[in-house]
Amino acid sequence: MGNAKSVGSDQEEAIVQCDTSAGPITMHFYRSWSPHGYDRATTLFEKGYFDHSHFFRVVDHFLVQFGIGYTTDKELKAFSQSTIPDDPKRPELLPFKEGMLAFAGSAPNSRSNEMFIAYDRAGSLGQSPWETPFGKVTFGLENVKNFYKGYGDMPPWGKGPKQGPIYKRGADYIKKDFPLLDKFETCSVQRMNQSSGSNLFILSSVVLSVILGFGYLQRKKRKFNKITY
Predict the structure, then answer these.
(1) How far apart are CA 182 and CA 178, in angstroms?
(2) How far is Cα 223 from Cα 193, in angstroms, rounded to an integer?
(3) Alpha-carbon distance 201 to 196, whole Å?
């Protein structure tokens, strides 16, 4: 599979719709914001890498971090852990607004598979060279804000999970020691070009998101009734 490479024009965008344990969310990715970041993120979602993975770092008013998948596909795992170059900074997109997405990293050109969604006080993000936004949550932000936060940050700042054991032990580590964490269910991706009727598609995506949200509430209601009666 190799390293990430450009797969579309700078005008390409993608709508990513996901079911999560807290309800559906829709994300809009923009290649013009961060070409390398867009290509990697969109490809990983398309290949189902994030399906059933957990939001392992949920810090109130700061961010939600995710991206450690549980795939057993050796090629996909190697692809996800390969690094991509940083993209040029986009000062016009700063400071971070709630719902924006970017990659987590540790050094220049270190982006691979881990990402975060900003919460309301994440304005300090964006200064590191790898923190170039590539998209935003456009539907279901309330569900993102409702992700379980009781464990706090990772040690030593909180009692949340450590990343090393997630990579080594996978979902079993989370299910055993952090069972209340929320997770993705499955996601779908639709790529589009700005010049090819994207407004109509976005509208239809919003309608579908509303339908998914209603379906989620109905499932919760049925589950509640089953438990209480």
Answers:
(1) 10
(2) 40
(3) 9
- Mind listing the pLDDT tens digit for each residue in 33-92? 999 999 999 999 999 999 999 999 999 999 999 999 999 999 999 999 999 999 999 999
**How many whole angstroms separate alpha carbon 135 and alpha carbon 204?**
19
Structure tokens at 189: 């991706």
CATH 2.40.100.10 fits 12-218, yes or no: yes
For residue 194, the one-letter residue type is Q
pTM of the model: 0.83
* Domain spans, the chain: 12-218
Nearest to 115 by CA among 150, 144, 75: 144
The residues, any chain, with a CB within 8 Å of residue 31's CB and separated by 6 or more, are 8, 9, 10, 11, 12, 13, 14, 38, 39
23 φ, ψ (degrees, to nearest 5): 125, 170
Query: Does residue 91 sit in helix, strand or coil?
Result: helix
Specify the residue for token string 């990579």: 167
Give CA–CA dist 135/103, Å, rounded: 10
Residue 131, both tokens: 């923190």
Residue with tokens 């050094």: 107
* Dist. CA 17–CA 23, nearest whole Å: 11
What is the distance between the alpha carbons of residues 71 and 76, in angstroms, rounded to a whole number? 7
Strands 12-20, 25-30: parallel, antiparallel or unpaired by DSSP?
antiparallel
Record the tokens describing residue 81, joined without a space. 């852990």
Helices vs strands, H then E, count in the chain: 6, 8
